[in-house]
Amino acid sequence: MANLTIVVNEAVLRRARMRALEQGTSVNAVLRDHLESYARVRSEREAALANLLRLSEKATSRRGRRRWTRDDLHER
User: Fold this and answer.
1) Closest by Cα among 31, 24, 23, 25 to 1
2) What is the pLDDT of residues 13-65, one digit of tens each?
């Protein structure tokens, strides 16, 4: 594992330590979990986008012969 150094306001760190202690964990564990989640969300979004693009390339549906106008699309 790699080490990371961050600069945090002392009062914020003190409150974070107290909250982590109340939850039976540490600030280090909270930050590690958050960073893992943050990194995973990005990779999941990228995978979902790649999957969507792949599906759109395989799609056999077409719009047909009709030409939609702006008024058709915004008809109420």
Assistant:
1) 31
2) 999 999 999 999 999 999 999 998 888 887 888 888 999 999 888 888 776 77
φ, ψ for residue 6, nearest 5 deg:
-130, 160
Q: Is 66 left (phi over 0), alpha (psi -120 to 50) or beta?
A: beta
Q: Whole-prediction pTM value?
A: 0.56
DSSP-based three-state secondary structure for 51: helix
- The whole-angstrom separation of Cα 73 and Cα 31 is 47
Q: Which distant-in-sequence residues (6+ apart) come within 8 Å of 6 by Cβ? A: 31
